[in-house]
């Protein structure tokens, strides 16, 4: 995909994501800064912040766990390990994600059961375990391109399903959420 294709898909993704009631009504969203050919998160993060939503961004720790910082806009992002961009502001601690209403997860694919195929680093597996251990139940949403919805992806015992996927062309629910 060209940079223009990624930007257009990101704009469509933002529009679709804001249609998801859990995102539309959220006070705090744990997001991430997309890199490379990942579905773009810039437009969505900008739209959320414009609505007054507190957006948290991950900070990769040495052990590949995630700390969090507040998204203060693209001018306040700094290059980090593994080609990532991270917030420059104060660190909020790994537990900050527990207070999020929605956690946006990167992924390579998701299947019809909501099982997400990640990049294999285990950072978000730790986040999901932390949420479960704290009894937190935010909406878990993966952002994907349309062709990344599959019939089945590999699954390991520690994997947890996401509740929904957002693609540029639509919303896909896997696990019913209480309203």
TrEMBL record:
Keyword flag Ribonucleoprotein: no
Database matches in InterPro entries: FTHF_cligase, FTHF_cligase-like_sf, NagB/RpiA_transferase-like
Family membership noted in the UniProt record: Belongs to the 5-formyltetrahydrofolate cyclo-ligase family.
EC number: 6.3.3.2
Class in the EC hierarchy, top level: ligase
Catalytic reaction equation(s): (6S)-5-formyl-5,6,7,8-tetrahydrofolate + ATP = (6R)-5,10-methenyltetrahydrofolate + ADP + phosphate
Highest taxon listed in the record's lineage: Bacteria
Record's keyword terms, sorted: ATP-binding, Magnesium, Metal-binding, Nucleotide-binding
Known cofactor(s): Mg(2+)
This protein's record includes keyword Protease: no
Protein's name according to its UniProt entry: 5-formyltetrahydrofolate cyclo-ligase
